[in-house]
UniProtKB/TrEMBL annotation:
<comment type="pathway">
    <text>Amino-acid biosynthesis; L-serine biosynthesis; L-serine from 3-phospho-D-glycerate: step 1/3.</text>
</comment>
<protein>
    <recommendedName>
        <fullName>D-3-phosphoglycerate dehydrogenase</fullName>
        <ecNumber>1.1.1.399</ecNumber>
        <ecNumber>1.1.1.95</ecNumber>
    </recommendedName>
</protein>
<comment type="function">
    <text>Catalyzes the reversible oxidation of 3-phospho-D-glycerate to 3-phosphonooxypyruvate, the first step of the phosphorylated L-serine biosynthesis pathway. Also catalyzes the reversible oxidation of 2-hydroxyglutarate to 2-oxoglutarate.</text>
</comment>
<dbReference type="InterPro" id="IPR036291">
    <property type="entry name" value="NAD(P)-bd_dom_sf"/>
</dbReference>
<keyword id="KW-0520">NAD</keyword>
<comment type="similarity">
    <text>Belongs to the D-isomer specific 2-hydroxyacid dehydrogenase family.</text>
</comment>
<dbReference type="GO" id="GO:0004617">
    <property type="term" value="F:phosphoglycerate dehydrogenase activity"/>
</dbReference>
<feature type="domain" description="ACT">
    <location>
        <begin position="319"/>
        <end position="388"/>
    </location>
</feature>
<dbReference type="InterPro" id="IPR002912">
    <property type="entry name" value="ACT_dom"/>
</dbReference>
<dbReference type="GO" id="GO:0051287">
    <property type="term" value="F:NAD binding"/>
</dbReference>
<dbReference type="Pfam" id="PF00389">
    <property type="entry name" value="2-Hacid_dh"/>
</dbReference>
<dbReference type="InterPro" id="IPR029752">
    <property type="entry name" value="D-isomer_DH_CS1"/>
</dbReference>
<dbReference type="InterPro" id="IPR045865">
    <property type="entry name" value="ACT-like_dom_sf"/>
</dbReference>
<dbReference type="InterPro" id="IPR006139">
    <property type="entry name" value="D-isomer_2_OHA_DH_cat_dom"/>
</dbReference>
<dbReference type="Pfam" id="PF02826">
    <property type="entry name" value="2-Hacid_dh_C"/>
</dbReference>
<keyword id="KW-0560">Oxidoreductase</keyword>
<dbReference type="InterPro" id="IPR006140">
    <property type="entry name" value="D-isomer_DH_NAD-bd"/>
</dbReference>
């Protein structure tokens, strides 16, 4: 029986992919083989020795200590693209909220009191304070052209906007899915100076902290609308707050409320709602549940953020999965242990990613306790699993 610990609510559609005759799933469980998580921060969590995999039912993995997991031979999976449409739709709503002043206008309409005739009179007199502008003809800057960014970019073109994108790490697959009408910026600085809206779709890492700061705000057009549906920390909220007060920024729409942002009429801060649709929650949960299951039951790896992509058809016999440091002579030492016991290798794959390497070895026979200990004790081996 595999044990799965859930740290957040994971959609039932995903949990159903882990059959109850093989999986025990609970929000409190000892010796878990896998953790399923959404936004719970795992940095301070004590990681049990039994843990083999973490499935992040979403895109961002900044709540998971990925390097530490790699050091312990634990695979971290995410669900690339599974919530991209949900975020794209909220970005569209955010652009409209920003340029049509929907937040403050709605607050005003809700605050008006009196008879219906008095409300009507007050509304007609007050609406001039909330006039906005339209999207067609305006320029949108998209920082990060991954699953979400390219969806947002393609959508904005359909709305009649001009779109400029920046992503030095864009993949070939990603570029194929991006409209050729999206203009390429050579740098962030070049992009920020020529857009009316700017939206961020990058992971939170050291290099993406405070991408918008006081200096970059000065380079921007007056009246810019800034959108952050990526992560808290990518925008310097203090600097944006000051730029709003100075009349430089027209509106700031984000998914990360704080005491500072609550004070601003020209800020809409939603409660981290980007991926909160039935469809996105199901897509993410199904994707990670299937990936974690394939890893636990067969050792295969799809969509891991720290392990290499590995798939090997099952053959008869026992499968050994070994995670090791990516150092010379590891395969030699591992296969010597098997050869010393006259165990024949039926099929084998070895792949590396960064400092890690991963082996799947199908053998004709069975690894006994002594051999298992020998494999575990090879210097540089981080985890050994015997999969029947
Ligand atoms: N608000 C929400 O609920 C919500 C939902 C989903 C994702 N997110 C956030 O959005 C982020 C992006 O999600 P995604 O699915 O598009 O991920 P993705 O991995 O498909 O795309 C990220 C893109 O950012 C690019 N990038 C990285 N550093 C960059 C930089 N300095 N400048 C420009 N581009 C850079 C990468 O090359 C990649 O193409 C996630 O990491 C997550 O933090 C938030
Ligand atoms: O699980 C969520 O609700 C948020 C997910 C989102 O932040 C992500 O990075 O995919």
């Amino acid at each position: 029986m595999y044990k799965v610990l859930t740290l957040n609510n994971i959609s039932l559609a995903g949990l159903e992919r882990l059959p109850r005759d093989k999986y025990e799933i609970a929000s409190e469980i000892g010796h878990p083989d896998a953790v399923l998580v959404r936004s719970t921060k795992m940095h301070e969590m004590e990681i049990p020795d039994s843990l083999k995999a973490i499935g992040r039912a979403g895109a961002g993995v900044n709540n998971i200590p990925v390097d530490k997991m790699s050091d312990q031979g634990i695979a971290v999976f995410n669900a690339p693209g599974a919530n991209a449409n949900a975020v794209k739709e909220l970005v569209l709503a955010g652009m409209l909220m920003g340029c049509r002043n929907i937040g403050p206008a709605w607050d005003f309409a809700r605050s008006v009191e009196g008879t219906d005739a008095e409300i009507n009179k007050a509304v007609e007199a007050g609406k001039k304070n909330f006039g906005g502008f339209e999207l067609p003809g305006r320029t949108l800057g998209v920082i990060g052209l991954g699953a979400i960014g390219r969806n947002v970019a393609n959508m904005a073109l359909q709305l009649g906007m001009r779109v400029v994108g920046f992503d030095p790490g864009i993949t070939v697959e990603g570029a194929w899915q991006l409209s050729s009408e999206v203009e390429k910026a050579g740098s962030m600085d070049e992009l920020v100076s020529k857009v009316d809206f700017i939206t961020f779709h990058v992971p939170l890492v050291d290099a993406t902290r405070n991408l918008i700061n006081a200096e970059r705000l000065k380079m921007m057009r007056d009246g810019v609308v800034i959108l952050n549906f990526a992560r808290n920390g990518i925008i310097d909220d203090e600097a944006v707050s000051a730029a709003i007060k100075a009349g430089k920024v027209y509106a700031y729409v984000c998914d990360f409320p704080s005491n500072l942002l609550k004070d601003h009429e020209r800020v809409v801060a939603l409660p981290h709602l980007g991926a909160s649709t039935v469809e996105a929650e199901e897509n993410c949960a199904i994707m990670v549940a299937e990936q974690v299951r394939d890893y636990l039951e067969h050792g295969n790896i799809r969509n891991s953020v720290n392990f290499p992509e590995v798939y090997m058809e099952r053959t008869e016999g026992q499968r050994i999965a070994i995670v090791n440091r990516n150092e010379p002579n590891m395969v030699g030492q591992i296969t010597s242990v098997l050869a010393n016991q006259n165990l024949n290798i039926v099929d084998m794959i070895n792949k590396s990613r960064g400092n890690l390497a991963y082996n799947l070895i199908d053998i004709d026979g069975n690894v006994d306790d002594t051999m298992y200990e020998q494999l575990c004790s090879i210097g540089g081996v981080l985890k050994v699993r015997l999969i029947d």
